[in-house]
């Protein structure tokens, strides 16, 4: 099963694409969403923000973010009890070029299993 | 109870003297009645019926009975010569048993009726006798009693009238069946009434007649109390005989032994024989008619499958029968043959053929019905020459559909259920009542319940109840009894309706609230 992995700090440098700054991943979850449909969470009542997709070659992948990670903090802001839209806003602030995330992920084997099942 | 009797010297044609009473019995082999439009009416050929297995007898009985319709007295000598050696033992036993049964049960039925009527008469005359005897015997010593007695006379007469009507309604109904044993509750009630009336007479005889009691009002009140008590006994009779059985407590599953058709009936607390009666009454209207022609195929199939195997005993003359049969069964199971294939293709082919003939039949009937038009009342005077009665109209359009109908009936093996006469009658009835072609055809497209057909097709109305418990016992969960008639049997399985625990739950109509749950994914 493997030992539990401690929370990781991931620093993503946003990439400028035209007018937008993109990070290169997708999020799911939030306190206004249905937690039972989250394929990555271990506890199906967990309403946190999860990484559902990481685009290839994007800034998130380069920084080491993985699919299924749960985002705990973004630049110091808590992400465990926010709505989906609030999470999106905190990640896409135009004034910030670098975001520092605190993420947790399940043990390696479970993460592999989950990504294979979903 | 039924007695097992063997052939003990009744000659074959003397048993036919009973034929006039029971036309239903002997017509079991009557697939060849002359009214059958197939033309098999007068043919002497044999129909092989696997269940009965007596083709020769069928041949003889058809011939003898048709001759017998005209003048059996002259032909008896011709009958005995050929029929004696072709009767099987089973058939003889059946014929003689039928005769004996009918005699025995008639006596029992009339005995019960006479006892009941005698008792009824006694019961009705008793209060009248109580009231009338004192004035007749010792009028001078009797105290006069005015309005009170007259009031009591009126009440006695009306109560007796009510009792009379109630007894007539409850007890004197036409008996609809012969049952093997006496009804327990009825017998108990008769005994109760008898004891009751006897005790009243005893008291009356000792205290009133002997001592010549002079208080006439007391005597009349005594008679009134008797009538009141009789009314209460009548109430008890209603409860025991009628009301107690109304609440359903058991469900009976009735399965026919030949083709597995089954039905379910709900009954209350009845004795086994009464439950059997209910089952039989419903049998005639719920079960499709028994058709022996549909059963012959499966036995032949199975026989063919096992036919090619022979057992050779290599180790010497040991007579191990069970070992041999087990070996045969095992070999037949392992044997790889294609009988299932044959069955599948045969059934598919049969279905196709039936459907095709049915399509032809429907078209023919629809076309035939198009030609008939109902005349309105005003038009009836206009063309008197061509106006037809329903029967004539039926005969006019029948030939156009006769062939298609006959072929369809042959394909579904129902041809012996419908004679040309019955079809014409049905057609006339449908025309009279303005039925559509489809309504006319429904009767022939599929087999209906036994009641739908002529009485001669009903085959048997004599049934035997086979049960390992006494037939006057009440129904219980798990009882199995069998109702056997000549051609098949009905296996009845009794199951108790389970005790249902019903509880209530209140849901506030305002508590139905809903929320939308999403799972969105946003790219950042």
Task: Name the descriptors.
heterodimer; A: 118 residues; alpha+beta; 6-stranded antiparallel β-sheet; two-stranded antiparallel ribbon; 3 helices; globular; B: 524 residues; 5-stranded antiparallel β-sheet; 14 helices; 6% strand; extended; cell membrane (chain B); Vang-like protein (chain B); transmembrane (chain B)
Description:
- The complex is a heterodimer of chains A (118) and B (524).
- In chain A, the strands form two sheets. In chain A, strands 1, 4, 5, 6, 7 and 8 form a six-stranded antiparallel beta sheet that branches. Chain A has a two-stranded antiparallel ribbon with strand order 2-3.
- Helices cover 19% and strands 31% of the residues of chain A.
- Chain A is globular, with a radius of gyration of 14 Å.
- Chain A is built from three helices and eight strands.
- Chain B is α+β, with helices and mostly antiparallel strands and 524 residues long.
- Chain B is 54% helix and 6% strand.
- Chain B contains 14 helices and six strands.
- A five-stranded antiparallel beta sheet of chain B has the order 2-1-5-4-3, with helices on one face.
- The longest helix of chain B is centred in the N-terminal third of the chain and has 50 residues, at 89-138.
- The chains are: A alpha+beta (118), B alpha+beta (524).
- The interface between A and B is medium-sized, with 18 and 8 residues.
Structural class from helices and strands of chain A? alpha+beta
User: In percent, how helical is the residue content of chain B?
Assistant: 40-55%
Query: Can you count the helices of chain B?
Result: 14
What ranges of chain B have pLDDT less than 50 throughout 5 or more consecutive residues? 1-87
Q: How many beta strands in the DSSP annotation of chain A?
A: 8
Mean pLDDT metric of chain A: 86
SSE order of chain B in H/E notation?
A: HHHHHHHEEHHHHHHHEEEE
Please report which band the strand proportion of chain A falls in: under 5%, 5-15%, 15-25%, 25-35%, 35-45% or over 45%: 25-35%
List the chains of the largest interface with their residue counts: A-B, 18 and 8 residues
Largest sheet of chain A: 6 strands, antiparallel
Q: Compute the number of strand runs of chain B.
A: 6
Shape category of chain B: extended
Order of helices and strands of chain A: EEEEEHEEHEH
- Describe the main β-sheet of chain B briefly: 5 strands, antiparallel
Contiguous low-pLDDT stretches of chain A (5 residues minimum) are: none
Given the structure, what is the number of helices of chain A? 3
In percent, how helical is the residue content of chain A? 10-25%
Give the oligomer, counting copies of the same chain as homo and different chains as hetero. heterodimer
